[in-house]
Structure formats: structure tokens, C-alpha cells
Write a structure and sequence with these properties.
homodimer; 35% helix; Nucleotidyltransferase, domain 5; globular; 293 residues; five-stranded mixed β-sheet
């Protein structure tokens, strides 16, 4: 079976491994610290790619930022990407094809092809971490939109300018459903501006009443967003992925979502593709796009 | 060119006409008052269909309610449909095929195939009337979801239970962006609970300050919703249709939406398919689905 080089560029770590057309990792997973500048990231990618180039059909990169429909470059971003990063021409990094896709889209494709949403042709995966990403599958195809950047989870939860989002606007889903959102709910409940997301998670574990209240507020905010997405997409399932996804009480969420929506009942699921969902999804999307097997 | 019978079942009127595969109306448009009960509606449809059955390839019906993927029946509804209506087996109304689709989906398809969104493979049409409907085109295909009922515009605009929506939940986009939403904004501004949507529109025409304030609030609510839809779908355009769509200041809306979204700029457009968009869209979708030309 043919293999590709999968690379996941995260905020702190870069992962790389050989992955086959079934999404199986066929080598050791290499791990590097993510350099601080776009130039250094490009140098690191060149180094990784040159090492494996002879053995693979193509390289597939999972990255933050909105990626164009041609899967060649990042064209917009809400996150704090290094300066110059959006103009990087990824195709110049290799003599073989280089396929690039947004990390949440890659995670969604991994869940659809090999994970919790396997076989569900209409599914949404939300990556709940410091921020929130979204990847949407419609009739077995990745939703890309006119320019490739669909799936941004910046719909509003309030009209009252309560919380400023990282994108500059107010009250986006991201600033409620993220780890940062949990932290802000913790501040709302305790009045303590120094509280961290970690403090709250630890407090919930210990049964602390205020921390539980913050956690419940956070969950109910996520539920409100999921209801909207369910009514818009009528999906088979919504998968909650990312570092914060694992803290969601999916049975409670599924119950409340299905009590409220006007479309047909949906499933709320934990992700199952793990830390390597990004590079696995990137490679599987690459195989589909490049028509290789 | 082959023709089909297009039928639009509205809340107050039923329209019917012969329509060809290019979406052109080829006969007089017949108009009837919509009967009050599901049984009477079915009798009326039988009467209309039997009249034209010999001349057409199939009948296509545009209706309120969520329609299944097979386009044979209404399976869910937020509107006040007559009792029993969702169980109607439309295929039994004719010896030839009967194609059924949600009215907002039909309007969206008409705008995409022959109207303002012509040739735009990623577009959203919102029907702003007493309520709000949505039809979404993704890569040239109608977004139906797992069961066929995607496109419901019940995502939340607030977490504070400010306005009760017709669906029973609170603060859905529909209860802000509809004519009813404008009325509620008028009540908020004036304190007059008897004010009507029509009073406000008339007041805006006359330059009444309070009515203008209500109108601006209503428009800003719509803009907030459009930002979310634009970030989720990265569409070529969002078309504002329905009786309230014509009152939208689309240039102002487009400017504010594009200042706020994190994806690529989109267009906000008035609809151009007119009152017969429902039956035209139903027929064009039917030709596509039934593979006739």
C-alpha cells in the first residue's frame, strides 16, 4: 500500500510520520518543538520532508488557519500564527505534491474515515482547545466554501458585547466553548480574575461547588451552539474533539440538544482519533484529492 | 422541452403552473386560497394535479416543513401546519412522480439556478417573512443533512432567554430576523405592545425616529446572524428573500458583515426570483432528481 508523509503543525509541537491510505501510522512519530517564526517553520518542514521524500507519494500538512480550495496555502487566520505564515508556498517544499488543509478539517475527516463518525456522511467535528475549530462533512464531502475557509466557529452567542473573541469581534461561539471560555465562566462565578482553565478542571474533579457551576455554564454554552449547528446541518453526529472535548458530558449534551432542536435527533460523541487525527486526516484527504491509493 | 406541474403551498395561497426544465412558467398561474385542514389541502392538490397530469412529466410541490431526503413527505415542522399534514403521502396524489421539497430550499434552488445567486455554487438563501426559512447550496448541491431537514434557522442569538421563538425555544435567529422580530424590536423601542410590523415599516417610510431605531436594531440582529452563517459556510453570497427581505439595506449589511467575518468577503443580495420562486425551484430540483430534461 502506498504511503504519504503526514505532518501536523501545532502551536507548540510538530508531529510527522509515514501514514498509509487506510490512515495507519507506519513509522515512528517524530516530534519537534514548533519554531517561533514562519521562516524557521518552513526550514523545519523542508528538513522533515527531505528526509522522507523518497519513500512517499506526497506530503500532507495539517495546520492552523484557513486553507484555499487548491490545498496549497493558508489564506486567512484567526489564530496567532507567525507573521508571514499565510503567504508560505507549501508546494515549493517538495518535488512531490504537497497537500495542505486546516487542522479542524483534517480532524473531522479522520473522525469520519476512521474514528467516531465513521460512515456518517453528515457529521461535524469541533476541536475544543484554547480556541475552537470546526470541520464539517456534508454528504461525505468536506465543506470548504467558495474560498476554502468554511467551518469557522465564530457565530454569535449574544448581542450584548459580553466577551471579546480572539478574532476581534464579540461573543463568538469560540470565546464561550473553548478552554478560554471555561476560564471566563470561572471568573464570572468566582470574581477571581487569575483563575485558570486548569484550576477549574481540578476543582470540578474535587467537587468544588463554584467550579462545578462554572463548568455547567460552559457546558450549557456549548449546548446552545450545538443546537444551532444541528438545526442548520441536520447531522448524523457532532464529534467533540481537542483537549477540552474530553471534559464534555456528552450524554447530558445529547439529551438537551435533542430536546431543543427542530430537526431530527443527532448524536453527540467524543472523538476517537487521538493526538494524531490532524496528520491522519491530512493524509486521507490528500489521497482522496490526489486520486492515489 | 419537457414540462412539470409546479405547486406552491403557502400559508394563505396555493399557486400552480406548468414550468419547463429552464424554470420558465409556460401557463397561466392558478391561485387558490389554502384550505384550513390537511384533508382539504390534499383534496385541492388532487384536483389540481388531475387537471394537468396528462401534460407533464411529474408534479413538484413546494411546502412549509422539513421534507425527507427521498422528497416524498414532510417529516418535521416548526410552523403551524394543519394537523395530519406531516403524514401526507404526496406520491399517492398522482400516477406520475410527485417531488416535494421545503419552500426555503426551493427558493434557494431557484435563486441559484435562475436568480440572484445564479452560478454561485456556494450560496445561502434566507426567506424572511412572518418566520425565517433557510436553503443552503454547497458546491452546487442542496444541503439536506442526514434526514433531509437541514437549513433550519434556529441558532441562538442570546443566552438570556429574551424572546420565545415559535419553535418553543428561546432566542432563535428566526425570532429576531423575521417580521415578527421587527415587531418585537418595535415593542422594545416604543413600549407599545400593539404595534405591528406594518406600523414600523410605514413609520420608517415617514422617517419616524423610533421606528427607524426599531428597524436598525432588526437589521443589526440580521447582520449578527449573517456573520455566523458566513463564517460557517464561506459562501459566495447570502440572498435575502421573502416579504421582509426587500426591506433590508443590503449594501449596509454587506459592509458590516465583511468587516466582521474571519473568512473571505461575501455578497449580500436581494432575491430576484419573485413570488413564484417556490414552484420554480421545486420543478428545477425535481428535474435534477428525476434525471429528466
Amino acid at each position: 500500500m502506498k504511503t504519504a508523509l503526514g505532518i501536523d503543525i501545532g502551536g507548540t509541537k510538530i508531529y510527522a510520520a509515514l501514514i498509509n491510505g487506510s490512515g495507519e501510522i507506519c513509522s515512528e512519530v517524530e516530534k519537534y518543538s514548533t519554531p517561533k517564526t514562519a521562516k524557521e517553520i518552513v526550514e523545519k518542514l523542508k528538513e522533515i520532508i527531505s528526509k522522507y521524500e523518497g519513500e512517499v507519494e506526497f506530503s500532507a500538512i495539517s495546520t492552523a488557519g484557513g486553507v484555499n480550495r487548491e490545498n496549497t496555502k493558508v489564506i486567512c487566520s484567526t489564530a496567532n500564527l507567525p507573521e508571514g505564515y499565510p503567504n508560505t508556498d507549501f508546494s515549493s517544499l517538495s518535488n512531490k505534491p504537497v497537500f495542505v488543509e486546516n487542522d479542524a478539517n483534517c480532524a473531522a475527516w479522520a473522525e469520519y474515515k476512521t474514528g467516531s463518525a465513521k460512515g456518517m456522511e453528515n457529521s461535524i467535528t469541533l476541536t475544543l482547545g484554547t480556541g475552537v475549530g470546526g470541520g464539517i462533512i456534508v454528504d461525505g464531502r468536506l465543506l470548504k466554501g467558495k474560498s476554502g475557509t468554511a467551518g469557522e466557529m465564530h457565530f454569535k452567542m449574544s448581542l450584548d458585547k459580553k466577551r471579546r473573541c480572539t478574532c476581534g469581534a464579540y461573543d463568538c461561539f469560540e470565546i464561550y466553548a473553548s478552554g478560554n471560555g471555561l476560564r471566563l465562566s470561572g471568573i464570572d462565578v468566582t470574581g477571581n480574575k487569575d483563575i485558570t482553565t486548569y484550576d477549574i478542571i481540578e476543582g470540578v474533579d474535587k467537587g468544588d461547588e463554584k467550579m462545578l457551576r462554572a463548568y455547567n455554564i460552559w457546558q450549557n454554552h456549548i449546548i446552545a451552539g450545538l443546537c444551532g449547528l444541528a438545526d442548520i446541518f441536520d447531522p448524523d453526529c457532532i464529534v467533540l474533539s481537542g483537549s477540552m472535548g474530553k471534559f464534555c458530558d456528552i450524554e447530558y449534551m445529547e439529551k438537551l440538544v435533542n430536546e431543543e432542536i427542530v430537526t431530527m435527533p443527532t448524536k453527540i460523541l467524543h472523538a476517537s482519533s487521538g493526538n494524531y487525527a490532524g496528520m491522519i486526516g491530512a493524509v486521507l484527504l490528500g489521497f482522496d484529492k490526489l486520486k492515489l491509493d
